[in-house]
Amino acid sequence: MKCTPKSEVYTRISNFQRELQDKNIDGAIVLLNSDMFYFTGTVQKSFLYMPCDGEPILMVKRSMRRALDESPLKNIVPIKSPRQIPQVLSDFGYDSIKKIGLELDVLPFNIYTIYKNMFPDAKFYDVSPLIRGIRAIKSLYEIQLLQNAVSIIGESFLQVPSFLREGMSEMELAALFEAEMRKRGYSGFCRTRAFNQEFFYGNVCTGESGFYPSFFDGPVGGSGPSVSHSQGAGWKRVNKNEVVYIDYTCVIEGYAGDQTRVFCMGQLTPKMVKAFDDAVLIESEVAKSIKPGTLAEEPYFLALKMAEEMGYKDNFMGYKEDRVKFLGHGIGLELDEWPVLAKGFKSPIMPGMTFAMEPKFVFPEGCIGTENSFVMTETGLKNMATIPEVITYLDK
Amino acid sequence: MKCTPKSEVYTRISNFQRELQDKNIDGAIVLLNSDMFYFTGTVQKSFLYMPCDGEPILMVKRSMRRALDESPLKNIVPIKSPRQIPQVLSDFGYDSIKKIGLELDVLPFNIYTIYKNMFPDAKFYDVSPLIRGIRAIKSLYEIQLLQNAVSIIGESFLQVPSFLREGMSEMELAALFEAEMRKRGYSGFCRTRAFNQEFFYGNVCTGESGFYPSFFDGPVGGSGPSVSHSQGAGWKRVNKNEVVYIDYTCVIEGYAGDQTRVFCMGQLTPKMVKAFDDAVLIESEVAKSIKPGTLAEEPYFLALKMAEEMGYKDNFMGYKEDRVKFLGHGIGLELDEWPVLAKGFKSPIMPGMTFAMEPKFVFPEGCIGTENSFVMTETGLKNMATIPEVITYLDK
């Protein structure tokens, strides 16, 4: 299996250690699978100690066999229980750690308590902002992986005309579209960081389904198949002359691309066609406006201003009270990475950052819009899409 | 959309309130989607206050429209930010709550801190064991939903002979099997409660893939498609005369059934055939031994004893150091519910409990075994399977 290059992993480690030194933290205990993968190249039931200086220690409960196969780290040791962590650290010479970093944005309170009791004299610090900040800047290696994911979602979109048909349920359409990506390597769960931010593949909405909101932090909801999973594809049948809206992630080798395309069997109303064109116009104008150093909230404000001037005040990024207040979100190992293109995010967009932008409109008769995955380069924003950004009309 | 009956929701609420009173807790703030769904019938971006007595209050950030459609609760009110919770509770007359329950097994430390600051004079208690205990006993309504999920996984298994073929990748087989369940209503993400317990649909392993362990807390790993998602189906091609092992969940209307079936194009070795028969024998003997009141660890001990006597000491529930120490797990709205059939779980198995049992063996040449979903009744354990428990041989 393809492993993360050693130089890649150790560069990430250096970046993190520099931040730990800056913050005067002795070391961090990293636990979350996505962060674990980023810093070790493997996802095991394991515990990573990242000293502010020197070799990290990967303590593995299960599976050692696999950790040794996959991770380029020098220190990989077996452990039976997290209770042994202080002893292992002491064996490696780390026996006076007093300032410990943890991922306090995701670590459940009860697990935090275990570590607090394990190191009774230590102070704990939330290192998740440091990790998220480092992870927001992608290496060339990561950008290539992300480009591959975006290419595969493109290939999958090109298959839609072969199976979309009148009368099929949104669920059946979702099943077939998901299978196209899955057989091309869709990794499985798309990782998200926020608590309760449940997510599965993406969203198929047809016609008025697009008007149905959900708890998910996106512009479009969808009925979902049941009240227990109330987002995305539902049981509505696909009709002619309505929007078939497909907004999906594609997770390949861990990296999530995100794209939306629109299909129609027949004709859309002039209103919906214009709304699509306006969404594409907003996207392209906003993309042109983004330079290295642009603050992450600025694209949102520009898109909002354009949408309101176009007459979409109640429709932009959701309908009326269900509108969400962002234009895009960082993508990578998680779907909710930094930067977030939203009010209040005043950090600059820097080369190496990757994010999806998704100007969309919701009307009582349905939703429409566009979405692509972008990478910030030294010279400007690059759209990673491999397929055209058009409504695909099918004559069937 | 089908909603949870009002009587069902209010029975659950009464059960929880009785526990809160027993523990002398003023009320609980429920946040996790699965618990939220259980007590309200809806999953929104929302905050549920469950007083130890009286009407609960569902405070909804997004979407009110949908909460009102789906939940039978009397008090559903909009809220802009969790910061308003103390004011809303005060408006409803709850202004001196001092002992507050939270789901501290899942609540991230940073979110816990928000609540601690919001109620500076309160003491906090972990109510997750109370909730998990209540949820472990299913109502007839829930058992019917679970039976439906198990029936749909059965239907999907019956489709396998139509698409399983030599030379296809495990990923393609997974894609097609998943699509069968998805178009029949697979809800999307299968909820799990444990931190980092990532999971996607299930596991396809063929031949020696079944020997590859993973971090996932199950007997069989699988290579997975990449090191970032290192469990389940991978890129190995399916051969003749080897085990095609399919262990999948089926989540319908929120409830997860869990089942494993084995296929083969050609012939298996006598060793593998015997191991399958032995797994089925263990399952049936253990099932017969379980009565209302049996402690949850006893079935594991019996299965382990039988497996060891049969000569599978190094193979039962994993290979050597990668063996897991359980026989089964509770199923319902989450895949890791109570009871857990594992050493140390000394609570009794009671009527209404539902769980999967999965005696399995792992050898260097692959894995084999069985799994079914069961419900405990007043008179004995009932296997919910709708399809036979045999190796399905295909002549192609």
Automatic annotation (TrEMBL), chains A, B:
GO terms for molecular function: proline dipeptidase activity. Its EC number is 3.4.13.9. The gene is pepQ_1. Keywords: Dipeptidase, Hydrolase, Protease. Residues 12-137 form the Creatinase N-terminal domain. The keyword Protease applies. It comes from the Bacteria. Gene3D superfamilies: Creatinase/methionine aminopeptidase superfamily, Creatinase/prolidase N-terminal domain. Signal peptide: none annotated. Residues 145-378 form the Peptidase M24 domain. It is an enzyme of class 3 (hydrolase). Pfam families: Creatinase_N, Peptidase_M24. CDD domains: APP_MetAP (cd01066). This is Xaa-Pro dipeptidase.
